[in-house]
Amino acid sequence: MISADDLRLTFGKGTPLENPALRGMSLTVNQGEFVTVIGSNGAGKSTFLNALAGEVMVDSGQIVVDNQDVTRLPTYKRASRVARVFQDPLAGTCENLSIEENLALAIKRGQRRGLSTAVKKQYLGQFRESLSSLKLGLENRLGDKMGLLSGGQRQAVSLLMASLTPSSILLLDEHTAALDPKTGAFVLELTEKIIEEQKLTALMVTHSMKQALDVGDRTVMLHQGQVVFDIAGKEREGLEVKDLLGLFEKQRGLEVDDDSLLLG
Amino acid sequence: MLSEIAFYGALETGLIYGLVAFGIYISFRVLDFPDLTVDGSFPLGAAVSAVLIIHGWNPWIATGAAVLAGMAAGSVTALLNVKLKILNLLASILTMIALYSVNLRVMGRPNVALLSEQTVLTPWYDLGLAYHQVPVVLFLIVVLVALFLLWRFMKSETGLAMRATGANPRMARAQGIATGGMIVLGVALSNGLVGLAGALFAQSQGAADVTMGVGVIVIGLASLIGGEALITPNTVIRALLACVVGAIIYRLAIAFALNADVLGLQAQDLNLITAVLVTLAIVLPGVRNSVVSKFTRKKA
């Protein structure tokens, strides 16, 4: 379980470029929930995710993961509980390291690292097994450099790395946005499969309203650094993109003029 | 042609600079941290070991102290960067400048002679080897031990975390790696190796001098880049071998250039030769590729 309470964060405070990114953001994600997050550019989606991960520190508010206050902890101290897949396929893996070395890094996420060999023999079976579930033939390429893989393959491996060890929450930051539609669909399908099989708690940011409604079991919309609506269960079933837009306009009393929300 | 003594002399300094190149590999390549501290930590290692030796310490313990001194210097640079957010290059220049004063303080004068002292080399002269071969044999052993330990370290969980820190710090943090701590550890390790090199250099040359660090960074980089041009560093072991091979070849090239009378070069031309060799090492692999591609048909 992860809960954010009244998060506030302003970039460039006291300068002409002052930008309030989070203005009282509150959200609780319960154990086993798969929440999709939408919002226009500048709504605070990425900042919210970065705040949960620890990459940015909030000015005020509280973040609690599994009953522990992590608000002031840096990223690396939250890593045992928070797993993450980035938007940029190059960001989640090290291209100069081999596939098995990347996986070996991930299998120790948030744990103490000692002086024993990183790529242990007993890991290899597990690595091969999880890689073969991707059906990309990567199980025979453990020693290959990550840089040799395509963007989609790297994103699939990133996803695998994020789910290799248990986490309290999996953060997915528009992780299919940088991929071509076919590869994006493959990675999304894989995401759903992994989340369902391992019963993960996940928060997925997306630019596409359709995707936000198609996957997961709860949808949250952000606007100007706040949650404007939060739908789940029966209310969410059968909802379409135009209903979502209607909801948004009703909530805010304004027109949506951002094409990216309509086109998704 | 090169005389036998000049040849062994080049091997000896080449092996010492191999240790420097290991250090530079860790900072520049593994951590992507351009660290110029080495120009100060090399003479620091020399100064610390020389002063302890003339005060009657065991030369190996004095050498160990030089390693620790180098590590401390590296830690200062890394902490200036990690804790005080000073740009890495500038942080290392600050430490390097400060070390000049520190080195003078350590020695109490600009240089310390070791000519009649017991050094790590002394017991090895009784083994029946030729005089000029002794340092080569001992330093080769030291370099091979360092190479093996570094190789094992880079393959360990902590070493892998260090490599990830340099290659992709954001990903490293997300994997729970304290990247700041890794930078401190790596830069300390790097300068510890350079301190070791300085200590061995002082003992084999018979003196520590406050100016002996000038240009060490360039020589180390020349060795690293030259070695990488010869041995593609696509694995850790190859990258480490490239450091040693590069350093030895570099010193041999220097010795050869200075010994070839036709070229008319003298010792004072050393820095010019270094700059030319570094330039060649950087440019030549590209030239080779473009020449090769002119003569080979591209495969579809």
UniProtKB/TrEMBL annotation, chain A:
Subcellular location: Cell membrane
GO CC annotation: plasma membrane
Broad class of where this protein is predominantly found: membrane
Transmembrane parts of this sequence: none
Domain ABC transporter: 2-249
Membrane-related topology note: Peripheral membrane protein
Protein name: ABC transporter ATP binding protein
Annotated keywords: ATP-binding, Cell membrane, Membrane, Nucleotide-binding, Transport
Source species: Marinobacter santoriniensis NKSG1
GO terms of molecular function: ATP binding; ATP hydrolysis activity
Database matches in Pfam families: ABC_tran (PF00005)
TrEMBL record, chain B:
Keyword Transmembrane helix annotated: yes
Keyword Glycoprotein (UniProt): no
Gene Ontology CC annotation, any one: plasma membrane
Membrane-spanning intervals of the chain: 6-28, 63-82, 89-108, 128-153, 174-201, 207-227, 239-258, 270-291
UniProtKB keywords: Cell membrane, Membrane, Transmembrane, Transmembrane helix
Subcellular location(s) of the protein: Cell inner membrane
Gene Ontology molecular function, alphabetical: transmembrane transporter activity
Membrane topology recorded in Swiss-Prot or TrEMBL: Multi-pass membrane protein
Sections of the chain in a coiled coil: none
Principal subcellular localization: membrane
InterPro entries the UniProt entry points to: ABC_transp_permease
Source domain of life: Bacteria
Family designation: Belongs to the binding-protein-dependent transport system permease family. AraH/RbsC subfamily.
Protein name: ABC transporter permease
Species for this entry: Marinobacter santoriniensis NKSG1
